[in-house]
Amino acid sequence: MTDFDHSSIETKWQRIWEEQRAFRAPDRPEGPRFYCLEMLPYPSGRIHMGHVRNYAIGDAVARYQLMKGRHLMHPMGWDSFGLPAENAAIQRGLHPREWTESNIADMREQLRRMGFAYDWSREIASHRPEYYRWNQWFFIQMHQRGLAYRSLRRVNWCPQCETVLANEQVESGACWRCKSLVVQKDLEQWFLRTSRYAEELLADLDTMGGWPERVLAMQRNWIGRSEGAFVDFAVEGGGPPLRVFTTRIDTIYGATFLALSPDHPALAELLEGSAARGGVEAFLHAQKQAPVGEKLSAEREKEGVFTGRHAVNPFSLERVPIWVANFIVMDYGTGAIMAVPAHDERDFEFATRYGLAVRTVIAPADGSSPAPPFTSEEGRTVESGPFSGLSCAQARKAMTEHARRLGFGEGSVQFRLKDWGISRQRYWGTPIPMVYCARCGVQPVPESELPVVLPTDVTFAGKGGNPLAGSASFVKARCPACGGEARRETDTMDTFVDSSWYFYRYLDPANDKAPFSPEAAAAWTPIDLYIGGITHAILHLMYARFWSMVMRDLGLGTPGEPVTRLLCQGMVQLGGATMSKSKGNVVAPDEMVERYGADVTRLFILFAAPPERDLEWSEAGIDGLQRFVRRVWRLVDAHASEAAGAGPPRRPAGTAALDLRRKAHRTLARVGDDIGRRLHLNTAIAAIMELVNALYLFAPLDENRSDGPDLSGEDRAVLRESLDILVQCLAPFAPHLAEEAWSRLGHAGLLARHPWPEPDPAMLEREEVTIVVQVNGKVRGKVAVPQGSDQEMVLEAVRRDARLGSVVFPPGAEGPRRAVFVPDKLLNLVVARP
């Protein structure tokens, strides 16, 4: 027998795939198509096993769909703008472009060595002018439509990186990148009006059945739709009224004070002549000095100070004191709240600390008297003037109409989702295509002058602000309106802009007339499967959805959501932390590929855990996958000559042959279902391993012989068919081994493009058995399944059962905590109690 030389075999087939353009996607698919996409990587130097897991999942699905006869779009590119390249330029004395291009070359070679089925002819990189030109074009289109605007806002500022940070980039009060203490400052910023699409972004979530429920829940919470009312409280002593937004106007008779954000614009006027002014200003100064991480913490201790002023409740006409409180923010509502301590936990905590009144105005419908805060919306109003005795829902409707009729309020819908601040004070990003003219104001760069290219005459010293501001050749510009001297914008765009539409550019990467053609978008979108980490569940995916809606309105994109099915693969962890270069805990695949081969590495990372679960990295067990690959090779090598002459099986001569044929076809059906529908790749590999065991039992190998045992003609035919099925099932997971084995078995042409076989229905028939299902120790029902079904198949039957499914898989729950399975008899489940 010959050894499986992974190095030469993998190099051979990678060369053949490239020469034959095996994975080139047509510009316009004729017939069924499949767009498979993994989130594009940042070229930080080398890929690690976290990348490998993501891409191996996508590659297995892509190869399967190609074999199923679908035109395949499976591209790869680089999210190559960002602060790390600028930091590297400072540390290494290199230009960010040089560092980035070098990393791309290294990472591309690593991906090629893994044998991933990418269409490299569609490769993109966001730092190249031919790509970011279209970022600038999109910005100008949005500016013309009022979707891009400039405004003064308080932002999180990293003094070390000298750039704006999103809240998510502030970790325990420090910059996520350099760990410097973050401060807040007022800064002119460019924003994109994501709020204009808030209703649509929220409503579409109900149509996205192919997305994980936890991602949909995260996006719903982030959008944060609140239906309520604006109410104006007149200020004693004159001045503009204080407008509050409340979702519980039914509790307004219980409002015992108002609370304002420390950033509320009315404070300056309120404090004029107030005896409390000195104390309030000291409190405001202390709030400004507080670490950003403390301000963002939900557990922050609630503090405040009385302004010395009062307002008038427009319903009860009672005087209520006006306070400033650190838990009120300007980002939601109006930056002012009516505080109802008896029916709100935060208000109750604050009122208890400062001895403020607590007045109950909502009582349970059953007449009980719970201790405050009673926050249920199912009660009835009490002590609420003419609105007493109404249900909470009735009171909200009646009170909102009363406020509207008398002119001191109105119904309103508010969103937590705020406009997207895209300004970044750094070099390595897309220049914002705007200029400032003393005569004409802010003007967009003419489209004919795009792209606005990053200059090369910059210095990366790590201090002194944005390097772009120091480039005279870049800053000096002409006003497109009057032709006079102008100053170019030196902020660059948030890199989330780059990744918000890249999957459309893959479809038409050489287009120099438009970002992409509408025909290409119509032909290939939506994405059938998108794979990436849960860390991108909100920002990247929200921005990509927003951008797709904008492109649709520009006449470029297609109606509907851009992604049909989303898989958030689990993270690969090392030492309990997600693998990341910034954490210094990465494991590169190079040594494993060199030692074991790409196929073993791919099999190992896919077999280690279900795709959606996190995986603690350990190389324990990789030797077992290497032995598995060698066992497959020995089977093929030993039986290739005798199997090559066998025809198709007719009626197997014996029980063993019939059992093997059943096993092969059931494996084929199982693997196809696990890849194509369930995305349970680890169980697909397990099924293939079982087929290998069955093959060894049917045709044992003698170490002293170079060929297999003597078999009858019909047995050889079954063996040949079973080996073919084995190799075809392996193709999505170990493609180099599969191609070599397919060739060795006498087949012509690429296995990668060979049609996926259909299992013989006669071989799939099984007697049904009844499985007893226990939940938390009690029998809750039974399900009928084919004999020999494994635990996953029985769980799927439980999920489909109308009664059992609601018990075992309630909405929003993760599913069973533990399971004890007795094949063909019992499934005992432990589930969390609601």
Question: How many helices in DSSP terms?
Answer: 26
Low-confidence stretches: none
**Rg measurement, Å:** 32 Å
- Assembly type of the shown chains? single chain
**Overall mean pLDDT score?**
92
* Portion of residues within helices: 25-40%
Got a strand count?
Answer: 32
Structural class: alpha+beta
Biggest sheet record: 7 strands, mixed
Query: What fraction strand?
Result: 15-25%
Task: Give the terminus-to-terminus CA distance.
Answer: 59 Å
**Mass-distribution shape:** globular
Structure description:
- The protein has 834 residues and is of the alpha+beta class.
- It contains 26 helices and 32 strands.
- A hairpin with a 2-residue loop joins β26 and β27 (577-578).
- It is globular and about 105 Å long.
Q: Which short descriptors sum up this protein?
A:
834 residues; alpha+beta; seven-stranded mixed sheet; four-stranded parallel sheet; globular
In short:
The protein is α+β, with helices and mostly antiparallel strands.
Topology diagram in text:
Elements: H1 6-19, E1 33-38, H2 49-67, E2 71-73, H3 83-92, H4 96-113, H5 129-144, E3 148-158, E4 163-165, E5 170-171, E6 174-175, E7 183-192, H6 198-203, H7 213-223, E8 225-235, E9 242-246, E10 257-260, H8 267-271, H9 277-289, H10 292-296, E11 304-312, E12 319-325, E13 336-339, H11 345-354, E14 362-363, E15 380-381, H12 392-406, E16 409-415, E17 420-421, E18 423-424, E19 434-437, E20 441-444, H13 472-475, E21 476-478, E22 485-488, E23 492-493, H14 502-505, H15 518-524, E24 529-532, H16 539-553, E25 566-568, E26 572-574, E27 577-578, H17 590-596, H18 598-607, E28 615-616, H19 622-644, H20 655-678, H21 681-698, H22 713-730, H23 735-744, H24 761-764, E29 768-775, E30 778-786, H25 791-800, H26 802-808, E31 818-822, E32 826-830
Parallel strand pairs: 1-2, 1-24, 10-12, 24-25, 26-28, 29-32
Antiparallel strand pairs: 3-4, 3-7, 5-6, 7-17, 8-9, 8-11, 8-16, 10-13, 11-12, 14-15, 18-23, 19-20, 19-22, 21-22, 26-27, 29-30, 31-32
